[in-house]
Design a protein that fits this description.
Keywords: Disulfide bond, Glycoprotein, Hydrolase, Serine esterase. By secondary structure, the protein is of the alpha/beta class. The chain is 33% helix and 16% strand.
Length: 543
């Protein structure tokens, strides 16, 4: 996914954030902002501008050992002041070319309506994206004031990233996927504690974008997660996303170890290297230049677990191409994508001719494809070049190819399987609204390219600090109102609808709610290109 927006514009955001914090008041008095949890007493604050109660930086688990499942949440005496809304897990700040974050980073930000009612509020739990490498639950980016004003509680989750969350060595001391297990620990904490904040543990919607959508898709397809959530929202991601699964984790770990000064592929030796290296050194060694290879960063992502610690249940035991076929939990799902997702990745390429693309196409092949011969591989490359580059500029061809191969086809395939495998309701969306509020696109070098980039839809659901002092245009306000009403009505009832919008669920034929200048139902967009990917997957997909 995107390099977390925190990594792109934190300097701009901090000044706005500091201004708001000066005016964050205990408006309703200490009693209404003080909550007694089993861990201890916490005190939140009231945001005067957005009229929401905030409980920021509450720890839901403790990192006791690197690469291991997190331990129990900490306890404390006295009162925990819950005002740290920008805790970050270890990652690379590319703008300053510096590691940032901390290892013990497993915290939640909880946002509630200003007052309690006799009825418990529905809960939305948001897992951020970032390719399992970047990102956080920062209030600077993911302030959910638009959602909270619709009378829901919103919780944003931190989880371990990079090697700290996804070092996968096939041994008990580094089984892999602990970053996903962090998210499960957060869901269990929410079940045990959200009622203290006025939230309903029996009405929890898990919502993920990009890598966050990959995470919630895994949870949806796992029967042991039943009861932790009751509805699912997947924005721009599914477990088939090629950049978010590692088929050769030992090789990836060995590559990073080489940058740390070691040459080995032995799992136990690798474990000692990663255990004994500083967090900053690991983060630096995991960074790579993305020029003409947008996926060079993705060394540590979910993997098949071949060994786990005693009394720990493995989370992923098969490849995504197998897991995606499971029926999973019978809960309603929203799943969709943006029209030009690939803008985010295409910005890293400087190819000028189609022949340059063809010559270097190997790095563009998604890992859910597997070729039995060089002839098959060459045939696919030629077919893809013909489909995407025959009547387009090189950059437009890259945008459309990357959109389809990385996000749109994986999400479409997931939608088709979800509609066939149970009688659940599946609601598809297609976001093509374009304005200066499309912040992810604005931060790329392709900022004036038409369309909605990967992650752009989020800023019609969340209020990043960079926009806090800027009034929304009437059109932007209308999209914000429509999306927040649809997402929160789904969180309340399992049916996304408003008086102005009827969102028809998909059946054997996928149906999409287009969210753009018009909000209307449409058939599957770009059906010819999706048919190309269906046929390609039937021929060459890992099965």
């Amino acid at each position: 996914m995107k390099k977390s927006i925190v990594l792109k514009c934190v300097c701009i955001l901090i000044s706005t954030h500091m201004f708001k914090e000066v005016y964050t008041l205990n408006f309703f008095g200490l009693d209404s902002l003080t909550i007694d949890l089993p861990q201890g007493r916490v005190r939140g604050s009231f945001d005067l501008f957005s009229t929401q109660r905030m409980f920021l930086g509450i720890p839901y688990a403790t990192v006791t050992d690197r690469f291991q499942v997190a331990g129990s949440p900490p306890t404390w005496n006295g009162t925990f002041t819950a005002n740290q809304g920008n805790v970050m897990c270890n990652q690379y700040f590319s703008t300053l070319r510096q590691p940032i974050g901390q290892e013990d980073c497993l915290v939640l930000n909880i946002y509630t309506p200003p007052s309690r009612t006799n009825e418990l509020y529905p809960v939305i739990v948001f897992n951020h994206g970032g390719g399992f490498y970047f990102g956080s639950n920062s209030k600077l980016i993911y302030n959910p004031q638009f959602l909270v004003r619709e009378n829901v509680i919103v919780i944003t989750v931190n989880y371990r990233l990079g090697a700290f969350g996804f070092l996968c060595l096939g041994i008990k001391d580094a089984p892999g996927n602990v970053g996903l297990k962090d998210q499960l620990a957060a869901l269990k904490w929410i079940q045990n504690n959200i009622a203290y904040f006025g939230g309903d543990p029996k009405s929890v919607t898990i919502f993920g974008e990009s890598a966050g959508a990959v995470s919630v898709h895994y949870f949806l397809l796992r029967n042991s997660t039943e009861g932790l959530f009751h509805r699912v929202i997947m924005d721009s991601g599914s477990i088939l996303m090629p950049q978010d699964f590692e088929y050769n984790p030992i090789q990836s770990a060995s590559t990073v170890a080489t940058r740390l000064g070691y040459n080995t592929s032995d799992p136990n030796e690798l474990l000692q290297i990663f255990k004994n290296s500083t967090a900053s050194d690991i983060v630096r060694a995991s960074y790579a230049d993305q020029t003409n290879d947008a996926f060079s960063l993705y060394y540590f992502t979910p993997c098949v677990e071949t060994a786990v610690a005693d009394e720990t249940e493995p989370l992923i035991t098969e490849e995504p191409t197998q897991i995606i076929k499971r029926p999973g939990l019978n809960v309603p799902v929203i799943i969709g994508f943006n029209n030009r997702e690939g803008i985010y990745w295409a910005q890293h390429y400087n190819y000028q001719t189609v022949e340059q693309v063809r010559t270097n196409f190997g790095s563009l092949i998604p890992n859910y494809l597997k070729f039995e011969s060089d002839v098959n591989r060459t045939t696919f490359i030629n077919d893809a070049v013909n489909v995407y580059f025959s009547n387009r500029t090189v950059i437009d061809g890259l945008i459309e190819y990357l959109s389809d191969s990385l996000v749109i086809y994986p999400s479409t395939f997931a939608s088709e399987v979800l509609t066939k495998n149970s009688n659940r309701s599946v609601y598809n969306f297609y976001f093509d609204y374009d304005s200066f509020r499309n912040l992810n696109k604005f931060l790329t070098r392709l900022r004036f390219t038409p369309g909605a980039c990967h992650g752009d839809e989020l800023f019609y659901l969340f209020q990043p600090a960079v926009y806090a002092a800027l009034p929304a245009t009437p059109n932007d306000s209308a999209i914000i109102a429509a999306m927040t009403a649809l997402w929160t009505s789904f969180a309340k009832t399992g049916i996304p609808s408003t008086s102005a919008t009827t969102w028809t669920p998909s059946n054997q034929q996928l149906k999409f709610l287009e969210i753009g200048k018009e909000i209307q139902m449409i058939p599957l967009p770009n059906q010819e290109r999706m048919e190309f990917w269906r046929q390609t997957y039937e021929k060459y997909g890992r099965n």
